Amino acid sequence: MDVKLKQCFIAVDDFDKALAFYVDVLGLEIRNDVSFEDMRWVTVGSPLQPDVEIVLEPPAANPDFSPADREAMARLLAKGVLRGVNFTTADCDALYQRVQEAGGDVLQEPMDQPYGVRDCAFRDPAGNMLRFMERREG
């Protein structure tokens, strides 16, 4: 089978803050910006991976969600309990410093893990956890 990841979705509550973080701080590029009815989706991705995209979407972007579902999703996003994305990087410490200097919400400073990576973690402006991993030799 020929199966590859194409897109993943991250809920955001403020597109301006999200884009400032994902584009200006992390260096991802905007690939698409779509509005439909009262919703907006912005697709970003790494220039190093032109075939993989992250879709930034409003919480509860499903048009079939009830008002109660939308409110529940907004509360979960505000608590920071929705899942995020794991990234790889060639230099975890340099990335950590860049995100920290930009005011990123630090969850974990860079540390060596027993499973062969050095990693750190932040929350994006919407509260999603993002982990950045550098593969260690040996």
UniProtKB/TrEMBL annotation:
Q: Which domain of life is it from?
A: Bacteria
Molecular function as annotated in GO: lyase activity
- In this protein, which residues make up the domain named VOC? 4-135
| Keyword annotations from UniProtKB, A to Z | Lyase
Q: Which organism is it from?
A: Streptomyces actuosus
One Pfam family it belongs to: Glyoxalase
What is the official name of this protein in its record? Lyase
